[in-house]
C-alpha cells in the first residue's frame, strides 16, 4: 500500500477528508484538528483534503478560491501543524510543479482524467497522484490513466470513483467498479460525497443528496474500497463550494465509527 494511505498497525480503510475548497486558515485548521482526533482514536490513516483553487465551476461568478499562494500556504500549515499528508486538485501542467511544493498528493479532477499532459506533469513531480474517475468513463477505461502515470516513471498512484453520469442531473455508483479497478494494482477510493451530486441544475449551483452519504460509504466499504473521500464542513449551508453534497462535520464521528466496525467485519472474511 502507498505510504500515505497505510500504517503498519492497522487494516482499516484510509480517509481523505476536508472542505471542498480552502476558505480560510481558521476553517482549515479547525476541520483538520477535528478529523485528526477522530481518525487517531479509530486508527484510520488520514489525509487532509482541500482544493486551493476551483477551476471547474458552472457560473462565472462562482467562488474559486482565496488566492492560490495563500491557500497553498494554508495547506502546508495544516501538514506541519498536525503532521498529516495533504491533497489538493490541480488543473494544468503548470500547476503540478507549483502545488507539489506544498502538498503530498496531487489530485486529478474527474473531468481532466484523460488529459495526458496533466497526468504526466503530475507524475513527474514525484508526488503521489490520485486520479478521479471521469463521470463519463467505465471503470475499465481508467487503466489507461493509471498507465500514463506509471509510464511517466511514477508508481505512486490511486484511483477514486465519484459516480457515473446517469441522465443529465444525477450520478450513480456502480460498485462493480471497485474490484475492477483494484485489479490495476492501485488503491481504490470511493468518493462518498461527490457521488451524490446533482449537477447541471438550472440555477448553475450543483445540488446533492447528503442524507445518503452513510449509504454510499457503507456500500463502498462492504464492496472492498481501500479508502473513502468525504468532503465536510462545520456548516455546509454556508460553504462557498459544493455545500449541497457535503457532510456536516459533527456527523463524521458516528459515521466513521460505524464504517470502522463494518470494515472489521469485511476483513474478517479475507
Short recap of the structure:
The chain is built from eight helices and 13 strands. It is an alpha/beta fold.
* Domain module tally: 1
Which shape, going by the Cα principal axes? Answer: globular
Number of helices: 8
Radius of gyration: 17 Å
* CATH fold label: TIM Barrel
Description:
The chain is an alpha/beta fold. It has a single domain (about 5-265), classed as Aldolase class I (TIM Barrel, Alpha-Beta Barrel), CATH 3.20.20. The protein has helices at about 25-40, 70-80, 95-100, 115-125, 140-150, 175-180, 215-220, 250-265; strands at about 15-20, 45-50, 85-90, 105-110, 130, 155-160, 165, 170, 190, 195-200, 205-210, 225-235, 245-250. The relative contact order is 0.15. The mean pLDDT is about 90. It is an enzyme of class 2 (transferase).
What are the SSEs and their pairings?
Blueprint: E1 14-18, H1 25-42, E2 46-49, H2 68-82, E3 86-89, H3 93-100, E4 105-108, H4 116-124, E5 128-132, H5 142-151, E6 157-161, E7 164-165, E8 171-172, H6 177-182, E9 188-191, E10 197-198, E11 207-208, H7 213-222, E12 227-233, E13 247-248, H8 252-267
Parallel strand pairs: 1-2, 1-12, 2-3, 3-4, 4-5, 5-6, 6-9, 9-12, 12-13
Antiparallel strand pairs: 7-8, 10-11
Helix pairs in contact: 1-2, 1-8, 3-4, 4-5, 7-8
Amino acid at each position: 500500500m502507498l505510504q500515505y494511505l497505510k500504517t503498519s498497525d492497522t487494516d482499516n480503510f484510509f480517509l481523505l477528508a476536508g472542505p471542498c475548497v480552502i476558505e480560510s486558515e481558521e476553517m482549515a485548521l479547525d476541520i483538520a484538528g477535528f478529523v485528526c482526533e477522530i481518525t487517531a482514536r479509530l486508527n484510520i490513516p488520514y489525509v487532509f483534503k482541500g482544493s486551493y483553487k476551483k477551476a471547474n465551476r458552472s457560473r462565472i461568478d462562482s467562488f474559486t478560491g482565496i488566492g492560490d499562494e495563500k491557500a497553498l500556504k494554508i495547506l502546508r500549515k495544516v501538514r506541519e501543524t498536525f503532521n498529516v499528508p495533504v491533497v489538493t486538485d490541480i488543473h494544468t501542467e503548470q500547476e503540478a510543479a507549483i502545488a507539489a511544493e506544498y502538498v503530498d498528493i496531487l489530485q486529478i479532477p474527474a473531468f481532466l482524467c484523460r488529459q495526458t499532459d496533466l497526468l504526466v506533469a503530475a507524475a513527474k513531480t514525484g508526488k503521489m497522484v490520485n486520479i478521479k474517475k471521469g463521470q463519463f468513463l467505465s471503470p475499465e477505461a481508467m487503466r489507461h490513466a493509471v498507465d500514463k502515470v506509471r509510464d511517466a516513471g511514477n508508481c505512486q498512484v490511486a484511483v477514486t470513483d465519484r459516480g457515473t453520469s446517469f441522465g443529465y442531473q444525477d450520478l450513480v455508483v456502480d460498485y462493480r467498479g471497485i474490484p475492477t479497478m483494484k485489479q490495476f494494482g492501485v488503491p481504490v477510493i470511493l468518493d462518498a460525497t461527490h457521488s451524490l451530486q446533482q449537477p447541471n441544475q438550472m440555477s448553475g449551483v450543483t445540488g446533492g443528496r447528503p442524507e445518503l452519504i452513510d449509504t454510499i460509504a457503507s456500500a463502498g466499504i462492504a464492496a472492498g474500497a481501500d479508502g473513502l473521500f468525504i468532503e465536510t464542513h462545520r456548516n455546509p449551508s454556508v460553504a462557498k463550494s459544493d455545500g449541497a453534497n457535503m457532510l456536516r462535520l459533527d456527523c463524521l464521528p458516528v459515521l466513521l465509527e460505524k464504517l470502522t466496525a463494518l470494515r472489521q467485519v469485511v476483513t474478517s472474511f479475507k
